[in-house]
Amino acid sequence: MPVGFYLLFTKVFNMGVPEEYLAIFYKDSMIQMATYSVMISSLFSFSMTLIEDRKQGVKQFLRLSPLPESMYYVSKILTQFLINSLLLVVIFLVGHFVNDVQMDFMTWITSAVWILYGCLPIVSLATIVSLVKDPNTASVLNNMILMPLAIASGLWWPIDMFPEVVQKIATGLPTFYAAQGAKQLAAGQLPDVKGMLVIFIYFVGIMVLSIYLNGRREEIKR
C-alpha cells in the first residue's frame, strides 16, 4: 500500500513542484512512505502475530520449555526487523528505478537502518496493543494510533502546513525523527542527537510500560 501511495504522490500529485526540486521531492517522499510502511508492519503485523501466538498457546508452551520467554520476544522482533527490511528494499527499489532517486550504497544502508531504529518505539507499542484479547479490537486500536501518528509526524504532508501546535507535537514524536533523520542522511548530514534521544527514550519508556502491563495481566490471571 505505501508503494502505491508513493507512486500516487510522485506521479499524480507532483504538479506545482518546481523542476529543480523534483529530485528532492522524490527522495523525501520515498523516505516518508518507507517510514510509513515500516510503521504499518511494526504495529499491525507484530501485534497481530503476538495475539495469534497467545491464542494458540505459545506462551503456555514456553513456560514448560527450558527457553526463557525473553528469547521468544527477541526472535519475534528479529523476524519483524527482517520483514521491515524487505519492505524498505521494495520501496527503495521503486524510488530508484521509477523516480531515479540517487544515493550511494552506504547512504541507502544507513537511511534504512535509521528508519528501522526510528520505528523501534512502534514495535514496543505493538507489544502493548497485543495485550488486547480480540484481534478486531486490536485492529481498530491500531488504526486509531497509526493514521494520526503518521499525519502528525509529517509523513503525508509537510508539518509546516499544520498549525503551530501540531508542529510542536510533531517535534516530540519518534516517527517524525525516524523520517527526518533518514532525510538528513540522504542529504549527506548526520541525524540530530535530539532525534536519536527522543526515539531511544520512547522505546525504553514504552517497553517498561509493556513489561509492567504484561506482568499485571499475568498476576490477574493467577
From TrEMBL:
PANTHER family noted in UniProt: TRANSPORT PERMEASE YVFS-RELATED (PTHR43077)
Molecular function terms, GO-annotated: ABC-type transporter activity
Broad class of where this protein is predominantly found: membrane
Key words, A-Z: Membrane, Transmembrane, Transmembrane helix
Spans through the membrane: 30-51, 72-93, 105-128, 140-159, 195-213
Localization, UniProt: Membrane
Biological classification of the source: Bacteria, Bacillati, Bacillota, Bacilli, Lactobacillales
Name of this protein: ABC-2 type transporter transmembrane domain-containing protein
InterPro entries registered for this protein in UniProt: ABC2_TM, ABC_2_transport, T7SS_ABC-Transporter
Top-level taxon of the source organism: Bacteria
Membrane topology: Multi-pass membrane protein
ABC-2 type transporter transmembrane domain residues: 28-211
GO cellular component, one term: ATP-binding cassette (ABC) transporter complex
